[in-house]
């Protein structure tokens, strides 16, 4: 049931070093950090960001109907003010309290790690639904529950939005929520005051160093999910070195996943459209076939199974769900149908992710692997040569634009190419559509074409504009064009029916 609201005086009592300026009696029914989303009954929380200071929008929030403000210094306003040392720190705690602590009423599974968060959360959702549970999903591609799906603006929403989402899900009868928890989210407290039924760690490799600065800081941000939050169980991939170290520090209910983990996979055998393997767990052991390709995706599926078992799902139900798990948009997604050239679109955008994608493609074919990759602008520049080194393991590397944003696309491409190594068979083409055409045109029957880096994304970000561009659609169109150009058509004297 939705919260009836809390008086400002009651909110102030939840925080250390908070003071009320003005009338302490207004009732707050919602919180927001976005002045454009203020509604009657809202408390506007002014957050100071790296580019924008929310305190500059206090007047707009008041005009929108805010009954109270949360600020880090007293403002010239007649509206009640809750003054705190750090509004970002206060945001999550206040939002959880106003919405009656929704994470205490549902099982929230938080998944962090460099690669695999989206796949694991989608697999958890699919397995849990197959087992008859009502589910919610929060992540990179979209948020969905109760028959609704909304495109996500960021991997993990800001704390006010996150708690409101959990409250809405609770009120809709959701039992299990699978949520991606990014390092940015942990750094900025976006999941503050959330109780996690399960915290899961997939892996750690180079990414986001433009923000975190170094791998140690990046790793520490990820590990906060396990040290700074109330959680019942931890699920950790111990085949990853950082995961193995993390597991050694944890106390309480720990489920390890890996070659010698509590949950392990053995006898992995590729098959058309999927993989056959045996999963062994403390709850049971079973051989099964699942519609997932590649060792890394089977590992993601094992992680998902461990999360579902940790929240109390029956082992047989979990195995049944694994065997018919739904695919994830833009995650090793085959877009070529039955064509003899296999074209796969994947979100791999880290050196490790690219290398895994190429290795997996090799396991699917006796032909060549043609890999296309770029690197995002205004992001971690240090990983660009490493991206080149990773794609250099393909038989042909096509280097192109990703989302150049405000940077020069040619300069980004040159940086990726610098890591290829002497003698690498490669093509440079900054225009991504033409680059996809080149990759597909170069392929022959039995080859695999990997279009990497953007996955599900429906647009490219170029010089401040969002231009419609979906790799899956463009790659399929390129393949269709190739087929038309090589189709000899009806022969002499034949009838085209």
Structural write-up:
The chain is α/β, with parallel strands linked by helices. The chain folds into three domains: 6-87, MurE/MurF, N-terminal domain (Udp-n-acetylmuramoylalanyl-d-glutamate--2,6- Diaminopimelate Ligase, Chain: A, domain 1, 3-Layer(aba) Sandwich), CATH 3.40.1390; 102-323, Mur-like, catalytic domain (UDP-N-acetylmuramoyl-L-alanine:D-glutamate ligase, 3-Layer(aba) Sandwich), CATH 3.40.1190.10; 333-485, Mur ligase, C-terminal domain (Protein-Tyrosine Phosphatase, Chain A, Alpha-Beta Complex), CATH 3.90.190. 33% of the residues lie in helices and 24% in strands. The protein contains 16 helices and 26 strands. The chain has an eight-stranded mixed sheet, with helices on both faces. The relative contact order is 0.08. Residues 491-497 have low confidence and may be disordered.
Task: Provide tags for this entry.
497 residues; alpha/beta; UDP-N-acetylmuramoyl-L-alanine:D-glutamate ligase; 3 domains; eight-stranded mixed sheet; 33% helix; 24% strand; globular; disordered C terminus
* Structural class category: alpha/beta
Name the strands of the widest sheet in spatial order.
Answer: 11-10-9-12-8-13-14-15
Q: Average pLDDT across residues?
A: 93
Query: What's the CATH superfamily of the largest domain, by name?
Result: Mur-like, catalytic domain
Strand content: 15-25%
Q: Which CATH C-level class of the largest domain is it?
A: Alpha Beta
The CATH architecture assignment of the largest domain turns out to be 3-Layer(aba) Sandwich
Number of domains: 3
Number-wise, the strands total 26
């Amino acid at each position: 049931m939705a919260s009836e609201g809390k008086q400002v005086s009651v909110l102030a009592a939840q925080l250390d070093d908070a003071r009320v300026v003005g009338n302490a009696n207004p009732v707050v029914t919602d919180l927001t950090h976005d002045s454009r989303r203020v509604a009657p009954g809202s408390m506007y929380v002014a957050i100071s960001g790296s580019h924008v200071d929310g305190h500059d929008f206090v007047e707009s929030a008041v005009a929108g109907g805010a009954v109270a403000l949360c600020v880090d210094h007293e403002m010239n306003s007649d509206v009640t003010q809750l003054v705190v040392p750090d509004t970002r720190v206060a945001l999550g705690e206040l939002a959880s309290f106003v919405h009656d602590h929704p994470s205490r009423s549902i099982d929230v599974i938080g998944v962090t790690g460099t690669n695999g968060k989206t796949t694991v959360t989608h697999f958890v959702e699919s397995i849990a639904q197959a087992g008859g549970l009502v589910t919610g999903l929060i992540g990179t591609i979209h948020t969905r529950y109760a028959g609704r799906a909304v495109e996500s603006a960021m991997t993990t929403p800001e704390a006010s939005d996150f708690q409101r989402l959990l409250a809405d899900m609770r009120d809709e009868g959701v039992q299990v929520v699978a949520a991606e928890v990014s390092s940015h989210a942990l750094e900025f407290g976006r999941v503050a005051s959330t109780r996690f039924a399960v915290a899961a760690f997939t892996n750690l490799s180079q990414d986001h160093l433009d923000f975190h600065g170094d791998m140690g800081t990046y790793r520490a941000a990820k590990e906060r999910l396990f040290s700074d939050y109330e959680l019942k169980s931890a699920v950790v991939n111990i085949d990853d070195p950082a995961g193995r170290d993390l597991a050694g520090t944890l106390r309480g209910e720990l489920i390890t996943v890996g070659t010698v983990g509590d949950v392990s996979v053995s006898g992995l055998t590729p098959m058309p459209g999927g993989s056959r393997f045996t999963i062994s767990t403390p709850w049971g052991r079973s051989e099964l076939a699942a519609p997932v390709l590649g060792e890394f995706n089977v590992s993601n599926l094992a992680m998902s199974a461990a999360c579902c078992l940790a929240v109390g799902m029956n082992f047989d139900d979990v195995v049944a769900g694994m065997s018919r798990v739904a695919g994830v948009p833009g995650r090793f997604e085959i877009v070529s149908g039955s064509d003899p050239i296999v074209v796969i679109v994947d979100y791999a955008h880290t050196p490790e992710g690219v290398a895994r994608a190429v290795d997996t493609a090799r396991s699917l074919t006796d032909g060549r692997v043609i890999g296309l990759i770029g690197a995002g602008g205004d992001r971690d520049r240090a990983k660009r040569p490493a991206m080149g080194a990773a794609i250099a393991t393909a038989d042909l590397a096509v280097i192109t634009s990703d989302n150049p944003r405000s940077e020069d696309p040619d300069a980004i491409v040159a940086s990726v190419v610098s890591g290829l190594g002497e003698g690498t068979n490669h093509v440079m083409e900054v225009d991504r559509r033409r680059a996809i055409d080149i990759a597909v045109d170069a392929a022959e029957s039995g080859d695999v074409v990997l279009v990497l880096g953007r996955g599900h994304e429906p647009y490219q970000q170029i010089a401040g504009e969002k231009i419609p561009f979906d790799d899956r659609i463009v790659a399929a169109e390129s393949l269709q064009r190739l087929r038309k150009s090589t189709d000899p058509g009806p022969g002499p004297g034949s009838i085209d029916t």
